[in-house]
Amino acid sequence: MNAPMTFDTGAPPPKGSRERLVVIGNGMAGCRAVEEILARDPNRFEITIFGAEPRVNYNRIMLSPVLAGDKSFDEIVINGADWYTDNGITLVSGDRVDHIDRAHKCVVARSGRVEPYDTLLIATGSDPFIIPIPGHDLDGVVTFRDLDDVDKMLAAAEKGGDAVVIGGGLLGLEAAHGLSLRGMKVTVVHLMPTLMERQLDEAAGYLLKTELERRGQTILTGANTKAIHGLDGKVVGIELEDGTRVKADIVVMAAGIRPSTGLAKAAGLECERGVMVDDHMVTSDPDVLAVGECVQHRGLCYGLVAPLWEMCRALADHVTDAPSGYLGSVTSTKLKVSGIDLFSAGDFSGGEGCEDIVLRDAARGVYKRVVLKDDKLVGAVLYGDTADGSWYFDLLKKGESVADLREGLIFGQAFASGGALADPNAAVANLSDEAEICGCNGVSKGTVVKSILAGACSLDAVRSTCKASASCGSCTGLVELLLSLTMGEDYGGAREVKTLCKCTSFGHDDVRRLIVEKQLKSIPQVMQELHWSTPDGCASCRPALNYYLLCALPGAYVDDQKSRFVNERMHANIQKDGTYSVVPRMWGGLTNPRELRAIADVVEKFNAPMVKVTGGQRLDIFGIRKEDLPAVWADLNAAGMVSGHAYGKSLRTVKTCVGSEWCRFGTQDSTGLGVKIEQMTWGSWMPHKFKIAVSGCPRNCAEATIKDFGVVCVDSGYELHVGGNGGIKVRATDFLCKVATEEEAMDVCAAFTQLYREEAHYLERTAPWIERVGLDHIKSRLLDDPDAIRRYAARFRYSQQFSQDDPWAKRASGERRDLHAHIATVRPLVVTPEMENA
Amino acid sequence: MHGDWLDIGPKTQIEPGTARTLPVEGGEEIAVFHTMRGEFFALVNACPHKQGPLSQGIVHGDVVTCPLHNWNISLRSGNALGADEGCVPTIPLRVDAGRIYLKRSAVLSPRAVLA
């Protein structure tokens, strides 16, 4: 610790003639408040400033550029020693105030120095939050708050090696960026699933994460640090909740800040999260003021610099007898990482009556979202193009109606303020001939217009003649505008595509094609690349995208459980009273005493009020509570039974008749084939539920001709039928083909199933699918090329490798217990935790 | 702040985009939601339509879709959205130092707060 130093110079008017102002805190807030007061009345106070750090006042928010090597300390000093001298201010730096004595109106510093005051200003700022995990006090664990921290980080970076930053907020990412530029291998560990979740929504967070990863940082989101490990008192690495270990030569804790209220609390001033102040920054003691990050004003604490300037103005007005009042701040954030443009302001969490306008431009890596409420702008998130950040922020602060700007608002100031340009037609008409319309194929407006004038009078014609909108399709709207502008009334109008849901302008087929073409790998990535208009989709598109990705990337895609309908998440069928029904698999409809006993035991043990034989030849156990599901499954598993997937958009059951083994009419072993087919197809996820049946003769007791795939055995082989449905609209199957052997029947079954998986729309059964595309389409895919059956069947069997895990076995062994257990039970006035930190 | 606020555990116990439940003896079960944006909300775990367990629905934005008949319920206000009409009581919630707190009086009688 440096010895206290004092700049005690200048020639103030004689002591006693002026009021004494003592400021605790030599940071940005304390000094700015003093500047504001001096600007109003330079002679009113005799001023003493205490600073805990042994240096003059500097710009704390510029520590990031110092760490990154863009600036030196001297460049970020706000007020040098001269300022204190010239204004007759006594600076006591490196000597922390330990105690406020309100009774005697004085403060006592660590050195023993006692300083009396008439007016006291608390500007103690905030403290970094240290997560109290094991190892947080090891050598090499630092925070990112002051110049000492930066010095420690720079010293570590000189040796190179690995750095871990705990916290993916503004401060953490700036620290990570600096350390990375200084040559360290950086891993960011962030508790929440989205980086900077307080400032960004999921979509912008995803773009930011992708960019940081491209720059070589490792970003772990949804990661909870369990411990910091050390050797001989020095940090060597961290361990996450899931057991992952990351090597570290330095660990930066940037998990947030807390208003520093210790002194104020000890002095008996009213505090909640921060020191409570009124609109004039006065605390519960009229002679004590507080300002900056340490205060709580109208329920809010601020951790940014802009509110601080506004607070200081109100404070200075108050102490110089011209009270104005501080009404709270609307804040905006910019990330200070070079090359990444990111801006956010206001409230973009949505809510009642809020309306989102989203613009995504995948080619330029741009995401813009503005939130409107009652025709006023209330929030904005910009990534990749922040040129209009200050314009949006201005509109937001003014709080005026933006109804007139609405149409063009998302395109920015130049567009929206251009008078007539607010009409998108006019905007497109005003584009120059060189303006790029299609980014994928580099087609300019002039080229598109030329091809329209040469006779391309529909979207498809434009696509085939000049390639515009022929790839990702995101410029389709622009091309259609050009068609209507160029052709006038001759244009037949936009084509009708039924969109996947209201979040997108793409249809199911386009989404499926683009997932494969653009090699998209996650739901947020699909939403960004395909210009989704909502931040995280809806209950219609999320399950559809999850399925499409699962189908396109067998084995590689990680199933997103939160995008699944409840039944597929719980592996049971929800009933009207919120309980579940459980259906164990009975292969081909066969069962035995052991299975029946186990089912009977489960029914009694869990008081299931009903058991019913299903239409798919199995038993359904009703009235099971979600908490009991894992135990029910454990018992059924013990008897050798697995999930029947009676709840899924998946293979349900293979219904059979008894066939040649018992039946006097049977022509083939329909039961045996049914069991083999069920063993091949169980566990597969599909666009919708999928039922199979095998009948042993044309009497068709297994009702194979109203199933999605039906086998009817005949003396000479197997007749294969597709597209039947016994539901709302009964549809008999279409005959697909006839084969001679069981193996061929199974290959065609696998191939047809895979074709359906790859081409149908989500939630489209085989019957409407076949009616939509035509039986000839199915036949041409499967039967025209003699090798097609083999190829489709091979793809099906490959993806089945990854889906034939019994989901019940995992749950019964305790996996995802959080889906089944309550958080706790409230017994009036008592809480009994059932699981902490699950 | 602990007097009228009931500590129901760390916020990490609810994965973003999901909800978990809190039965109340002699009262109504509560669903506590964690949105993808990182916000927390608590509602009575019963859809205003046919009392479906909202905790089991798909969460998108600040809306949950009821698993029984696909009503969309605002987590912020408890109101049914779109053409449907109805409202489920919400329970005041706050997060402090990584823990979730529910307003005790509302936990015990959520419908009194609604009225």
TrEMBL record, chain B:
<dbReference type="GO" id="GO:0042128">
    <property type="term" value="P:nitrate assimilation"/>
</dbReference>
<keyword id="KW-0534">Nitrate assimilation</keyword>
<protein>
    <submittedName>
        <fullName>Nitrite reductase (NADH) small subunit</fullName>
        <ecNumber>1.7.1.15</ecNumber>
    </submittedName>
</protein>
<dbReference type="InterPro" id="IPR017941">
    <property type="entry name" value="Rieske_2Fe-2S"/>
</dbReference>
<dbReference type="GO" id="GO:0051537">
    <property type="term" value="F:2 iron, 2 sulfur cluster binding"/>
</dbReference>
<dbReference type="GO" id="GO:0046872">
    <property type="term" value="F:metal ion binding"/>
</dbReference>
<keyword id="KW-0408">Iron</keyword>
<keyword id="KW-0560">Oxidoreductase</keyword>
<dbReference type="InterPro" id="IPR012748">
    <property type="entry name" value="Rieske-like_NirD"/>
</dbReference>
<keyword id="KW-0479">Metal-binding</keyword>
<dbReference type="GO" id="GO:0106316">
    <property type="term" value="F:nitrite reductase (NADH) activity"/>
</dbReference>
<keyword id="KW-0001">2Fe-2S</keyword>
<feature type="domain" description="Rieske">
    <location>
        <begin position="6"/>
        <end position="102"/>
    </location>
</feature>
<keyword id="KW-0411">Iron-sulfur</keyword>
<dbReference type="Pfam" id="PF00355">
    <property type="entry name" value="Rieske"/>
</dbReference>
<dbReference type="InterPro" id="IPR036922">
    <property type="entry name" value="Rieske_2Fe-2S_sf"/>
</dbReference>
